[in-house]
Amino acid sequence: MATIHLQREDFDAAAEAAALARGRSDVGAVVTFTGICRGSEAGDPIAALTLEHFAEMAETEIARHVEEAQKRWTLLGVTVIHRFGRITPGENIVLVVTASSHRGDAFAAAEFLMDYLKTRAPFWKQVEGANNRTWIEARADDDAAAERWDQPKSGTRSSG
Questions:
Q1: Exposed e or buried b for every residue in 96-111, given b needs 16+ CB within 10 A?
Q2: 10 Å Cβ neighbour count for 144?
Q3: How does pLDDT run across 8-64, given as a tens digit for each residue?
Q4: Is the separation of the CB atoms in 45 and 88 below 8 Å?
Q5: Measuring CA to CA, which residue among 90, 6, 92 is closest to residue 52?
Q6: 74-95 pLDDT, tens per residue?
């Protein structure tokens, strides 16, 4: 079971996690990650972050990574919500929720999905500063985090 939403509206992380496990006795672990808009970028204060995307392309790419996570780990459910539009500091940007019988699979899948969302999901981020707007470039450390999943051993199923 996978749910993917691209939306302008905020989300309730606790409600989404509860919905994924509600009525299930096979779920032993639910891992949630919420990405929140910081108040600064590269040390400079920001007023907002604007995320742009091509809806069909973004949804297809996210679904592809969710399918990959489901192949690599034993998952009982996945929810990915990614906001777009203008987001101000302190507001939610992205949510990944994974459910599994065991914590190892849930943690690994959530981390895998976030690494790929951060680097390969087709979203473009523009920072609104006090006097200017700039596009955020990809970061080498984010790319390195995603590339580690390309190693053969990282795709093995875990337990725990």
A1: bbbbbbeebbbbbbbb
A2: 11
A3: 999 999 999 999 999 999 999 999 999 999 999 878 899 999 999 988 899 999 999
A4: no
A5: 6
A6: 999 999 999 999 999 999 999 9
